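Structure request: FAS1 domain-containing protein, Stephania yunnanensis.
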Amino acid sequence: MAFKFSVQFVLILFCIVILTSSTPAHGVGLIDNVTQVLFNAGYKSMSLALASSLPTLLARVDLNKTTVTIFCPTDFAFGDQDYFVPPAQPPLWLIEYHVVPRKVEKVDLESSSIFPIGSKLDTLLGHSLVITTSRYIATSLNQVQIKEWDMYNDGRVVVHGIEKFLNPYYKIQEFYSILFLCLFLFVLSLVFVFTLAVVLCDKVLPIVTPFMSRMICSLRESASSDIKEWLLYHYSNYRAARKTASLV
Ligand SMILES: *[C@@H]1O[C@H](CO)[C@@H](O)[C@H](O)[C@H]1NC(C)=O
Ligand SMILES: *[C@@H]1O[C@H](CO)[C@@H](O)[C@H](O)[C@H]1NC(C)=O
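Returned structure:
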């Protein structure tokens, strides 16, 4: 009996050990900490979404070896997107697209030598984010600006705040086409200004020229006789000098 009891006891103990060790290595504490920090920072919607999705997502990476970077849209972004209808939660695939299984910090994204414009960051969705930062354009991914850096960063999980949801259908071509469009508009406006100047000259000069010449005439007439005499004096000196020169 005592033997049977101890076997049962050992079995139960064994089950307890199995159950505890089968909880993910990152534990519940980590997810609680991340979601709590986000909630307190005012990213309440994403905090709730991560509370239900992070256990699944973090189980897919080995946090002992890999750091996970999460890009977290603001509460405002939840009302300004086309992916789901609140109060429904964002679909898992959309959250997967906001989780990158590597450490991405401010210095990395701001350094064009580490991540030149157009370089890609793999996500848990298996579809990459595109870096659209350059020296002259604010730090962004898929042209979505990073609002807050390191809202949470314990070395294993890093969370940055972003102003909008990242669009999984984003293509870098859009970025280049916007650049191209800006350039095109710039050239077009130059051509427009140039054409306008030419047309205006054509129309305006005939009006302006007589006016200008009349003004110059009246100035000439109103010039004091002193100046006239001074000019005449120097002019005659000049003529005399030329005469002597030609004689010599
Ligand atoms: C969560 O935060 C508490 C308090 O700051 C800390 O003691 C604990 O180690 C954290 N847990 C994890 C898993 O990071
Ligand atoms: C990660 O490290 C912790 C402590 O160092 C260890 O208990 C855990 O088993 C490790 N997890 C994995 C998946 O290797």
